[in-house]
Amino acid sequence: GDRFMTPLPSTLRPWALPLLTTLLFGCGGGSSDSTTPTPTTQVQLQFSAPAEADNVQTLGVGIPVAVGVTVNGATAADGTSVVWSAANASFSPARSSSTGGQASSTMVATAGGMLQVQASATVSGQTSSATKTLYLRPAPQALEVLVPAYFNPNPSGSPWDQLISTAQAYPGVQVTAIMNPNDGIFSSADEQFARVVSDFTGEGGQVVAYVATGYGTGRSVSAVKQNIDNYLRFYGRNQLSGFFLDEMGATSQHLAFYKEIYSYIKGLDEELRVIGNPGTLPVADYADVADVLVTFEGKASDYTRFNPQDGNAWVYAKPNAAQAMLVHNATSCAAMQTAMRAAATARNNTGLVYATDLLYDFATNTGNPWANLPSYWTSLLGTVSALNRGTALPGC
Fold first, then answer.
1. For a disulfide at 360, which of 126, 339, 368, 369, Cβ 3.0-4.6 Å?
2. Are residues 156 and 118 in contact, defined by beta-carbon separation less than 8 angstroms?
3. Residues 222, 228: Cα–Cα separation, whole Å
4. b/e map of 189-219 (b: 16 or more CB within 10 Å)?
């Protein structure tokens, strides 16, 4: 009876049926294993305020902060939420909504120094953040003039007489002179120094006494203490506001030396002011062994590049009255005013200032920039007064 049966085509042999079934069910309209890639949402934030030039701000004051927000390269939809955060700071509001791709808030910082401000946004499950580095400093105080008065008084006249006659020229400007009889090494009072110091303080000036410290190695602690004692013994506490520690070290190696001197002075009288002169930015711990640090001593042209932000954020944790600058080679009144304006900026955060047109060359150790007052002395006082009052600088 098989002769009437038509043989299955070779393509439909029984052994081929499972393969056919697989092929049939694997064809047509897609399978459960096929996927369509989901586009990734790209969220980007970029700070638009404060401007980079305004990255030093004031503690306790409302600081406007703002970011631009884009999604896949286009302006984010209105209402996109941005969350603000930073250590030692509060935001009002802490979460803001964007309008026209911009979101803003107001920050109040509570601690000085470097601060990382972060803004974050989440769109379609994708979160992105932006961070801005700011530096916070206490509210600045009025500038004070610190004069290296390393000239000897005499009856026939000296720069001390000019200091005395101009001490009250600008009542809003405090002038502090550094007296320097024989680098502080003496065993009796100098009559002429006693006279000019008394006259200068009588006109409202302040005097600090010069003491060489040999960078922490050239002199002993006991020798420095002896100088301090002699100043107070021979010139009197009522005439002296404090001490100027010159040739100060700047590394941690000599920190203990200066800590002992600082403690000794404060033990004599807590109100005595200690001004240390490393002449450069020292390691941060030196801020604890002096009330004021001269963080720059050098040419006016070099001072235009002074910027503590690179590795010295500790400067901003201190008030501007804790930093001083002594500039020489400011060969014109205009150069002096440039230096004074720079000191007054938030970036430099410097409260005690001085500039002179006298010259000194470090490479050859020639010149004495502190041998006299600058030719523009009264203009310097007027410039500092104008900066303190926020008015136009006087003409040169």
1. 369
2. no
3. 10
4. bbeebbebbbbbbeeebbbbbbbbbbbbeeb
Q: Is the peptide bond before 50 cis (omega within 30 degrees of 0)?
A: yes
In single-letter form, the type of residue at position 99 comes to T
Residue of 97, 199, 222 lying closest to 153 (CA atoms): 199
CB of 174 within 8 A of CB of 145?
A: yes
Contact 282, 249 (CB under 8 A): yes
Amino acid at position 221, single letter: V
Q: Which of 214, 209, 221, 212 is nearest to 256 (CA)?
A: 221
Cα–Cα dist 297/311, whole Å: 19
Q: Are 56 and 346 in contact (CB under 8 A)?
A: yes
Question: What is the length of the chain?
Answer: 396
Give the closest residue to 237 by CA, choosing from 268, 193, 213, 260.
268
For 213, the token pair is 């410290």
Tokens of 130: 């932006």
In three-state form (DSSP H/G/I as H, E/B as E, the rest C), the secondary structure along 61-89 is: CCEEEEEEEEECCEECCCCCEEEEECCCE
Sequential pLDDT tens for the chain (396 residues): 443 344 444 444 443 444 334 433 444 444 344 455 555 899 999 999 999 999 999 999 999 999 999 999 999 999 999 999 999 999 999 999 999 999 999 999 999 999 999 999 999 999 999 999 999 999 999 999 999 999 999 999 999 999 999 999 999 999 999 999 999 999 999 999 999 999 999 999 999 999 999 999 999 999 999 999 999 999 999 999 999 999 999 999 999 999 999 999 999 999 999 999 999 999 999 999 999 999 999 999 999 999 999 899 999 999 999 999 999 999 999 999 999 999 999 999 999 999 999 999 999 999 999 999 999 999 999 999 999 999 999 999
Model-level pTM?
A: 0.87
CA neighbor of 150 nearest in space, from 199, 188, 183: 183
Structure tokens at 91: 């935001």
| Amino acid identity, position 214 | G
Residue spans of alpha helices (H) in 58-204: 159-166, 191-202
Distance CA 178, CA 145 (A): 11
Q: In Å, what is the CA distance from 358 to each residue of 246, 305, 331?
A: 20, 20, 7
Q: Which residue has the tokens 């200690």?
A: 274
Distance CA 179, CA 247 (A): 15
